[in-house]
User: Fold this.
Amino acid sequence: MKKNSQTIDRQVIHKIMDRAIEINQSCKESCRDFRIMTSPMRADTLILRWRTIDISNEDNPIQYYHYECFKMDGTPEFCSVYYTDQDQANDFITSLQMLYHQKFAIDHTL
Assistant:
């Protein structure tokens, strides 16, 4: 993952992290590692990525990455990111550039 020199407005962070709180509250697994990111493969789109950990089998916990898209002003686009082609998926993952990171979805306005 590349570092991004682009900045993001605080109000946009609040809008997207409000959605992260909603996601966390409805999450059956452990949701964490919320990141606001960009990718050249998704122009003019902010991407919220988070990780869930399924610990139903303690000997083999499984991690999943989830993605949601937002307009540049933080408005949800009501879409997710999904690739059936492994090469495209790998290209997308390696193109991600992080703008903001918060380990847990808690009240970010404090």
Summary: Residues 2-102 form one domain. The radius of gyration is 14 Å.
